[in-house]
Write a sequence for this structure.
């Protein structure tokens, strides 16, 4: 006897997903046609980003709810738009289902995506549903940015200050706790990993107030993103270990295990904070502007000539910082 998604069928499931008809003004045609139709404002550049999460590789359903999975899948893409100083407009979602998922699970998945998307007026305007051997979710987000002030990895200039929003290391510390045998899965400890907050408003504010130089989001770890900025901007960077905003969760988790809190800060992924560069005078103003929004921001170093990434330790000596972080292959 058929049960679950087999009873609903592909089009029944799509109809269920389609029930939420909320749209923003950019979406002309949403779910129901062969493609979504949307409008761009005059003088704006279109942005497109996509991200795939695969069961067993990017998430584990033993400690990740379908709601949290949906939230995180949306967050990863919104963070990419934020790093381009963009406004997200709409999303499309493709699911590969194995047949083990229930209709309720799919409902929860979409509830998670919409819960975060609605914060930024992002409509899920289409997508695809297929059956396969591995459960995966692919989200693509369309956005727009002012044509003459897009946040790029290639814009850092020698002499710029290097800044980062928020604190670093909490996501990896939360993941380590979730994977541990500890029964105390404190939500305050795990929230940044399960329900990260992309810095969309911060990116838009920086674009309104400043001429952007280099910018990237921290998805693969601070050390890795520093190297990405250097490669694309053809420059070097030096950071001050004492200036790094190490998250309290990373410090506390390191005390419970054998990992250095600095490792959490430098090499922990899925932070979704903004790493960006500005001239020193603008950097001072940016800290005040973001602080007025309730967002912490720190100067952690500067952009240099050359191509190396170095870190100044407590002894005052600079050493090369390894290009290490999350790698797919």
């Amino acid at each position: 006897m058929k049960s679950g998604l087999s009873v609903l069928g592909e089009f029944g499931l799509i109809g269920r997903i389609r029930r939420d008809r909320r749209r923003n003004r950019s979406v002309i045609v949403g779910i129901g046609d062969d493609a979504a139709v949307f409008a761009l404002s005059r003088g704006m550049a279109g942005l497109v980003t996509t991200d795939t999460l695969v069961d067993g590789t990017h998430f584990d359903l033993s400690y990740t709810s379908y709601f949290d999975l949906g939230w995180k899948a949306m967050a990863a893409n919104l963070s990419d738009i934020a790093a381009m100083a963009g406004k997200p407009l709409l999303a499309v979602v493709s699911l590969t289902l194995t047949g083990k998922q229930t209709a309720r699970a799919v409902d929860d998945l979409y509830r998670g995506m919409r819960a975060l998307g609605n914060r930024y007026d992002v409509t899920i305007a289409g997508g695809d549903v297929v059956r396969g051997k591995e459960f995966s979710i692919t989200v693509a987000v369309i956005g727009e940015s002012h044509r003459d002030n897009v946040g790029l990895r290639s814009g850092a200039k020698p002499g710029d200050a290097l800044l980062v929003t928020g604190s670093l290391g909490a996501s990896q510390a939360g993941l380590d706790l979730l994977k541990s045998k500890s029964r105390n899965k404190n939500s305050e400890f795990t929230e940044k990993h399960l329900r990260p907050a992309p810095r969309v408003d911060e990116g838009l504010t920086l674009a309104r107030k400043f001429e952007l130089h280099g910018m990237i989001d921290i998805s693969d770890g601070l050390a890795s993103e520093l190297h990405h900025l250097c490669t694309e901007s053809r420059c070097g960077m030096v950071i001050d270990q004492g200036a790094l905003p190490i998250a309290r969760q990373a410090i506390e988790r390191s005390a419970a295990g054998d990992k250095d809190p600095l490792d959490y800060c430098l090499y922990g992924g899925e932070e979704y904070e903004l790493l960006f560069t500005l001239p020193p005078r603008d950097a001072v103003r940016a800290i005040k502007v973001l602080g007025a929004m309730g967002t912490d921001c720190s100067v952690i170093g500067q952009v240099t000539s050359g191509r190396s990434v170095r870190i100044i330790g407590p002894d005052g000596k600079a050493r090369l910082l390894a290009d290490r972080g999350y790698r797919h292959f």
